[in-house]
Amino acid sequence: MLGLDAYHLSLITAVGISVGVALSLNLITGFCGQISLGHAAFYGTGAYCAALLTKAGVPFALGLASGALLAAVLGVVVGLASLRVRHDFLAITTMGVGFLFIGVVRQQDVLGGELGVSAIPDPGLGKAGFALLCVGFAAAVSAFSVYVKRSWMGFVFDAVASDEDTARVLGIDVPRYKLAAFALGTALAGLGGGLYAHNVKFIAPDSFGFVESITILAMVVIGGIGSVGGVVLAAVVLSLLPQWFQFIDDYKLLLYGGLLFAVMRFSPGGLAGATRAVLARMRGA
Description:
The chain is an all-alpha fold and about 280 residues long. It has 12 helices and no strands.
């Protein structure tokens, strides 16, 4: 990475953060079947916590860890409140959490209010070092996702996602594993938020609104719900498109809406499902 210029390093940094955050939602929605339309709230919690702590003189690493922990605590609270609701009602509940987060941040001067938080301290790693850290974050979350998916916890998550009532009959403590999914996913989102805050050096409430939640969800759905490789690919593509084609940024919701419609209509399994179908045809031929 030492030979890359600042522009390409910034692209790598943004992609690394997006991959990690998209995979964090995949743990909740893809693995455990819990639909979340407010994931940006946990992303923003980590960002605000890390930014404010480092501005107060707390070391960078401790600020990131604190942001991840606070996001996990909020995730468990939301998970507890959501245990009695499913499917559409869960989506509405998590959407409300996202709006609540924006409302609280805007009303609290200690959090920067409408003006946001600026002059976030530089971690002191240099552009190349910070880009490498974000790539490491994406790689670590990818490896962790693969590990969880192949472990006994992954099989339990799959059972909960498929049929909660059957899972209970089989003796699975459904609430416990729902909370575990929320805790893991939101902690990783908070960690990604801390990295984002120190990358851009300025955060505001609008950075973590409903549009951002939909963007993260689009990466998961387009990549293939529950697929690790597909979500990584979708996160990379959807992160780079607005950077390569600036006009796309003005039509982001239109683009994502069109892609989501196309995926649901023609390839419900997302990019991962489409890839598997193509490989199956090639083997048959």
